[in-house]
Amino acid sequence: MKYDIIIIGAGLGGLTAGAKLAREGRKVLLIEQHNKPGGCATTFKRGDFTLEVGLHEMDGPSPRDMKTKIFRDLDVFNNVELIKVPEFYRFKNDHLEITIPHDPELAISRLSDLFPQETDGIEAYFNQILNPKKRPPDENITDRSIGEFLDSKIKDEQLKLILLGNLGYFHDDPYSLSLAYYSIAQGSYFNNGASFIKGGSQKLSDHLAAYIRNHGGEVLLNHLVTGIQIHDGKATGVCFKKRNNTSDMQVSGDEIIAGNAVPNLSDLMPEVAGKELKDELMDLRPGASLLTLYIGFSKPLRERGHSFYSTFVYDNSVKSQADIVRNNKDDFTRRSFTFVDYSQIDSGLAPEGKSVGALCCIDYLTDWEGLDRKDYEDKKEFAASAFIERLEKLIPGLSDNIEYYEIGTPATVKRYTLNPGGAVYGFAQTPSKKVLDSFPSLSNLHFASAWGKTGGGFSGAIYGGYLCAYNILRKR
Questions:
Q1: How many of the other CB atoms lie within 10 Å of CB of 346?
Q2: Where are the beta strands (DSSP E) in 289-342?
Q3: Domains of the chain
Q4: What is the pTM of this model?
Q5: What is the pLDDT of residues 169-223, one digit of tens each?
């Protein structure tokens, strides 16, 4: 069978591209190996609880946000309810505690009151992230790390850590995270606020999949692409099979969109093209993964006096930016973490009288590979116990209300997404990273995922998918 568009992978990038192209009358086939669409934008059920895989907060949407145009175009606002998140984040360590609001003027005022000697550095930081495309004439550096930038503007290490509180939204190390990328991403939270998808991110993914079907496209779940066919310098179609089935099927298409992890494409191509793509990606590396502790509570934590949506707890061993990356591989009894209390908003993740929380930390697949089944489960249980004990200190009495908990590791991420290293944000956004929009040797093979031009996170994947569709439509 012949299609105008074949999309590999139903993450937010592939779903957004497919929805836009189907809306414009293209015949779309989207093939996803998992049993549900969304990639990391999914949820799963455990008893009374809907557990959110990937979304803590999504920047925007606001009138100035490109997602507003995209969501209107794809009828998201009429089908998905967005709940405003109350504050940006609360930062806490053994020395201090501060809540950072989304309002940049209020954030500047609050930080300046706490660090009066650093008002110039605070102003410089917010000027950078709120106006990332404007650069003072004396700063001719094309790009550098956010870590280097903070060191050049601010002396107080505690202030730097506060500003980097939500670093795990983007990367694992401030000294290898692009300032340009960070500024745009972080600035969007301050410029546009943030929201949560009521009922969980699966609502958005399911809507986009339904949108494709309702506009004449097909979405095949539980099907795995096994090969990309290439002829005369063009991708002509794909081979795929139903999961746990050995027989391949083939379809042809005018344009192929990779909504999956770009490094995986090389193994799907004929040898010469595959090697060429590997060479193209040689200087790029996958970003970090995450460990997540999902918790179902028998009562809302706000009834225990807890009043914060997201809390970033930095261990006392993290005294400077340089300590962050080391701490990411520390013992779970000391590793810094984020805790999200979904009971602070009308999340739709639990029935009345109950609530859901999630604890997250940077983690790496290499620390889980090679373990036998028992050691793997024992390590998960150790991590869960360590973090629950630390949460008990943060919210006394919390343990008495835990009705269910479960750990997801980098190995879990890789199993469900097939992402190399269990990476959740695609390629690491290092300074002056190569822009990856397409594969030069195949003009009709396009990238539309966290691994593409616009990077990871919900917004990055959505932008990448929409821009990919726009480029195909413009080409036609």
A1: 12
A2: 289-297, 310-313, 337-341
A3: 2-40+201-285+429-475 (3.50.50.60), 107-190 (1.10.3110), 289-363+369-408 (no CATH)
A4: 0.96
A5: 999 999 999 999 999 999 999 999 999 999 999 999 999 999 999 999 999 999 9
